[in-house]
Amino acid sequence: MKLAPLSLAACLAAPMAMADEVSIALDWTLNTNHIGLVVAQEKGWFDEAGLEVEILPYSDSASTALLAAGAVDFAYMTALGFMSAKAGGAPITALWVTMQREAGRLVYNSDHPDITRPADLEGKTYAGFGSAWEDALISTMIENDGGTADYDTVTLGTGAYEALASGAVDFTLEVATWEGVNSELLGRDQSHFVYNDYGVPEPQGGYIGTQTATLETDPDTVAAFMEATRKGYAWAAENPAEAAEILIAAGDFPNADLVRGSMRVIDEGHYLTDGTTPVGQIDPERLRTMAKFLYDSGVLRSADGEPLEWPGDVTGWFDQGWRTK
User: Fold this and answer.
1) Which residues in 202-241 are b (16+ Cβ under 10 Å) and which e?
2) Checking CA distances to 164, which of 121, 224, 230, 269 falls within 20 to 30 Å?
3) What is the tally of structural domains in the chain?
4) Where does the SsuA/THI5-like domain start and stop, copy by copy (predicted)?
5) Same domain for 212 and 299
6) Which of 153, 168, 198 delimits the end of a domain?
7) 17 lies in the same domain as 74
């Protein structure tokens, strides 16, 4: 499998794919969140469904923007990316969610002398990524632990992890199934706080969606693509070690042990399925609860930057009718 470069301008300049040729844009560089897509591709399950699927890598255009513009047929989206786009009126609908548990967490060095609880983060320095979601999350955790949400922020992107390891900052956010695994491989002694323990709703994560109109005009292609995707993730959930090797062979990873370790954590932590919840199943109540939190926190805003008002109902944000086709 080869991932080709992608930009919004290039996609819009090209004609849309025919029904049996579909594309999906990724939300980030290839990683274990995308394992089911890669397995379905490499196992030939997309081919068996009569589809020629192009998995497009993360680029300078967000996957939600590409999907909303009609530049791709499907998109893998972060929960925040999807909810922000949908709240802003993007004509997209979620079909799937990958992670049944929250993999994010707030992390700090275990030997930090002044941090034992979220309230201790008051006055400390946070290495962040530049989104309003981060402040809403961290402030909620600190305040629910009895502290005052008064802390400094430096925006470092992925440089946050090296900054934390060196002690240049006091805390950051990480994904347990990726950055957390990498820290373990590097021998870093770090501790963490779980968002849900301090008043932040636990969302599901990693949505796959399509344009809302596509559900009406080409439901058979949607169902075929999603069923092959479901098969890929279900197989990965049952065969995590083998799935890791498939992903390693398909990608370009500087450290293959990071992929193996990530799939081990995903398996042990029951992130893809808890054994009773089918892979990919969206929980309407959890989606509603997180969307309400984002509205109430002022994270979801209009194009002119004004906070959006809670619509009262988000059941139209997703559709899993493809499961019955």
Assistant:
1) bbbbbbbbbbeebbeebeebbbbbbbbbbbbbbbbbeebe
2) 269
3) 2
4) 31-243
5) yes
6) 198
7) yes
Q: From CA 196, how far away is CA 199, in angstroms rounded?
A: 6
Question: Looking at the structure, do residues 230 and 313 belong to the same domain, yes or no?
Answer: yes
Kindly give the interhelix angle for 132-144 and 284-296, rounded to the nearest 10 degrees: 90
Q: Which residues contact 44 (CB under 8 A, 6 or more apart)?
A: none
CATH code (residue 167): 3.40.190.10
What residues contact 197, with CB distance under 8 A and at least 6 apart? none
**Cα gap 61→279, rounded to integer Å:** 28
Q: In this structure, what token pair is assigned to residue 80?
A: 């925040």
Length of the chain: 325
Residue 89 has pLDDT above 90, yes or no: yes
pLDDT digits (tens, 9 = 90+) for 177-212: 999 999 999 999 999 999 999 999 999 999 999 999
Question: Strand 92-99 to strand 205-211: parallel, antiparallel, or no bridges (unpaired)?
Answer: antiparallel
Residue 161 lies in a domain: yes
Q: Retrieve residue 114's tokens.
A: 């002044």
Q: Is residue 108 part of a domain?
A: yes
Range of the domain at 51: 8-101+203-324
